[in-house]
Every structure is written in structure tokens, then in C-alpha cells.
User: Which sequence fits this backbone?
């Protein structure tokens, strides 16, 4: 017997919707600006790619769509899934996965290079871990997920909440590679799905938690 999808009675959403909308808005504005120029300028613009600042939104949307499609398959297992939810004031949460063991707050990124944990300190000062991707410091991404997790925890009270950074196109090794830093899991899509499905069962009411999240974080 197929399990009932706990997402049935919450507002419909689409993974990557807000990023896709922003990409289309920027592309439309560029085309309108180009159309107002002379013929030579229009030809030149037609031969050049969209600016990186615009393409980044397209790439971000594709990453969220890919992870979102994988997460959606977990609904058959009774996992509640929400996508692209607004945080009051500013920002959004890419994905929320609700199991009987707790809630996963998932931020999807499309970065090249290998994610790694750089350890600093020791002996005379406390050790601290820093996220790097391709050798570049990316601690700001960890802070971003911590911010999202804090919002979800305030909304849910005592429900366990775990944050995750899912790097879609990173240079992950064939085996392993995932790690945790400052309470945030850093992992590829395949490992994210396995970790969610294998997380210990608990007393969390998935449907009730989904409704609470739906009220606090509306579709972006």
C-alpha cells in the first residue's frame, strides 16, 4: 500500500521557482535594453552570452530543480517535502524535508571544485573547522544555513532540525567526501538522500509539522 503524501494539504510549491523567476526577469530587462539600442549594438549583444550575474540565477535554479526532483521521490516513503520557502524579512529556504526523526533544512549550491574541511588551531588555541570549495573560503555558506536553521527552530520549538549544504556539481570523490562543520552537514545529492532516508525514526508528526512549516514559510 502506497503511503499518503504528507505534502498533500500544504500550498503547492516548485523547486527553484524564485531563482528561475529572477533569471527570467534579468534576461527580459537585458533584452529590452538591447532592443532600444542601434542595430550594431543589438547584433553585438546577440553574439555575447548573458552576464555572469544573470547566468548564476539560471545555474542556481537548475541545481535546486535537480535536488528537488530527488527529494520529491521520498514522498512515497512518507517524507514531507517543501521547496523554495520565504523567510520573513529576507532570503529563502531551498528545501525542507520532514521525517519522523526531525526536519532537514537544505541549501543547494552549484560550485566547481572540491568541498573540504580546513582545520585551524590546536595546541595553544581551540580548533575550528572552515568550509572551503576549490581551496576558497566558503564559511559564509555555512553561516547562511545556520541562519535558516535558526528560523525553522524558532517556528517549530522542540522538533529536531538539521542543516545541510548540498553541492550539486562539485568535485566530489567517488566514495565518501561528506563531512560536517559547525553543525551543518556538507554532502553531495546522493549522500543527502541516503542520509535522510536512513535517519533514525522518532516521534515527530510529519503532517502536523508540514502544516506548521507551511504557515511560517510561504512559497517564494
Assistant:
Amino acid at each position: 500500500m502506497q503511503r499518503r503524501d504528507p505534502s498533500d494539504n500544504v500550498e503547492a510549491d516548485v523547486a527553484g521557482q524564485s531563482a528561475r523567476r529572477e533569471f527570467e526577469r534579468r534576461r527580459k530587462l537585458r533584452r529590452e535594453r538591447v532592443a532600444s539600442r542601434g542595430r550594431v549594438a543589438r547584433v553585438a549583444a546577440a553574439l555575447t552570452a548573458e552576464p555572469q550575474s544573470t547566468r548564476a540565477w539560471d545555474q542556481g535554479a537548475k541545481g535546486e530543480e535537480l535536488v528537488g526532483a530527488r527529494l520529491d521521490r521520498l514522498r512515497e516513503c512518507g517524507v514531507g517535502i517543501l521547496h523554495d520557502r520565504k523567510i520573513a524579512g529576507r532570503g529563502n529556504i531551498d528545501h525542507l524535508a520532514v521525517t519522523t526523526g526531525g526536519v532537514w533544512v537544505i541549501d543547494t549550491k552549484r560550485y566547481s571544485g572540491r568541498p573540504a574541511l580546513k582545520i585551524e588551531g590546536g595546541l595553544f588555541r581551540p580548533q575550528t573547522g572552515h568550509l572551503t570549495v576549490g581551496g576558497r573560503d566558503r564559511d559564509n555558506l555555512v553561516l547562511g544555513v545556520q541562519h535558516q536553521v535558526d528560523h525553522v527552530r524558532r517556528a517549530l520549538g522542540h522538533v529536531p532540525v538539521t542543516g545541510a549544504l548540498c553541492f550539486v556539481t562539485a568535485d566530489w570523490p567517488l566514495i565518501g567526501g561528506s563531512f560536517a562543520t559547525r553543525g551543518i552537514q556538507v554532502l553531495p545529492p546522493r549522500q543527502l538522500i541516503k542520509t535522510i532516508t536512513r535517519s533514525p525514526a522518532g516521534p515527530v508528526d510529519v503532517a502536523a509539522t508540514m502544516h506548521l512549516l507551511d504557515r511560517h514559510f510561504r512559497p517564494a
Summary: The first strand starts at residue 80 and ends at 86. DSSP finds six helices and nine strands in the chain. The beta strands are 80-86, 92-99, 102-109, 115-122, 125-133, 136-137, 161-167, 179-181, 184-187. The mean pLDDT is 89.
